[in-house]
Amino acid sequence: MHRPLVITEDHALLDDLVRVAAAAGAQLDVAHMPAHARPYWNLAPLVAVGADQADALAATAPPPREQVLLVTRDPDDPDAWRKCVEVGAQSVVRLPGDERHLVERFADAMEPEPRSGAVICVVGGRGGVGASVLSACLALRASGDHLRTLLVDADPLGGGIDALLGHEEAPGARWGDLVAREGRIGAGALQAALPSFGDLAVLSFHRGEVAAIPPQAMRSVLEAGRRGFDLVVVDLPRHFDPAAIEALTRAKATLLVAVADVRGILSTAQVLGEARKHTSDVRAVLRPGVVDDDLAVSSLGIPPAGTLPDQPRLTATLNRGELPKLGPRTVLGDLCTALLQDILPP
Q1: In what order do the strands lie in the sheet with 29-31?
Q2: Cβ(260)–Cβ(293) under 8 Å?
Q3: Where is the signal peptide (predicted)?
Q4: CA-to-CA distance for 256 and 275, rounded, in angstroms?
Q5: Which of helix, strand or coil describes residue 32?
Q6: What share of the chain is helix, strand, coil (3-state, %, to 5)?
Q7: Could you give phi then psi for residue 277, rounded to 5 degrees?
Q8: How many CB atoms lie within 10 A of CB 142?
Q9: Nearest-angstrom CA–CA distance, 42 and 262
């Protein structure tokens, strides 16, 4: 993989750029004059041109390209924008003020082609309806179809979705390891840190005392997930905290699991009212009950996405650390396949 290119003879600026690149996990190719930069100009994912070499570079008339920055250590440089235009740069970066922005630009440059993964949120209309089971099964079904999938546990009091999968002892990062992280998380770094099982990565909570997820941590994880995975499934709590709202605002679709009985529909309607404040595409997944399915869906006023069947032996299966079979000839497997086909682009 090609490295970002820096063109400068200013040693103080170069030291700053090397330090910033290291914070982004990047190494640099360095050219001290424009002639040395020529072999790397079209290959580098990003070019940072020091203000000291801008006029000399402009005199060589380099071919136009994207991802060129003019970098200066003088926040009041009156010629910065003139130099920016003449070298064909897209923006001016002034250090140290723009240092965090430059870290993100270097990190972006070092990532593989982003996947633009879709986010699906799953939430229960009341407790115990199987929203976490549906989240886990969707993620397993997608990863079984070789989609790079991230399953995110957003419910601090849910008991841990890694335990639902039977992998609570798997090594890897949990939310407690990420919440103190500020700013951008690299997609590759996230994939490497989390417990993974084939094409499925899981972000859950440590056992014991847990704290709420800061919204900025959820934002960073979801943005990294969208860049590095084909699908991100988020298991939401019923009471939407700021982190859950971050997920809802990014959701391509939200699946609301409802029991088709009077109390279940009333409770689900309340959850739906809160969800609609933050996302537009909400679909109902019904559990069988005493109320007719059509009447239940019409009462909620959202489109039906499918029916989550009762499974008499589900509790025993989960307590063994197993999940229901998701093959193409099983009801639950067919439901997950249909949901994914409806929500994800072909």
Answers
A1: 29-31, 5-7, 47-50, 68-72, 91-94
A2: yes
A3: none
A4: 9
A5: coil
A6: 40, 15, 40
A7: -70, -15
A8: 27
A9: 64
Residue 208 tokens, joined: 């014991």
Structure tokens at 12: 């103080």
The pLDDT tens digits for 179-196 are: 866 667 878 888 889 999
Q: Which residues contact 36 (CB under 8 A, 6 or more apart)?
A: none
pLDDT single digits (tens) 273-328: 999 999 999 999 999 999 998 999 999 999 999 998 777 676 667 666 666 667 77
Q: Is the pTM of this model over 0.90?
A: no
Question: What secondary structure does DSSP assign to 177-205, as a single string?
Answer: HHTT--S---HHHHHHHS-EETTEEEE--
Domains of the chain in sequence order: 5-110 (3.40.50.2300), 118-343 (3.40.50.300)
Question: Cβ–Cβ contacts within 10 Å for residue 151, how many?
Answer: 30
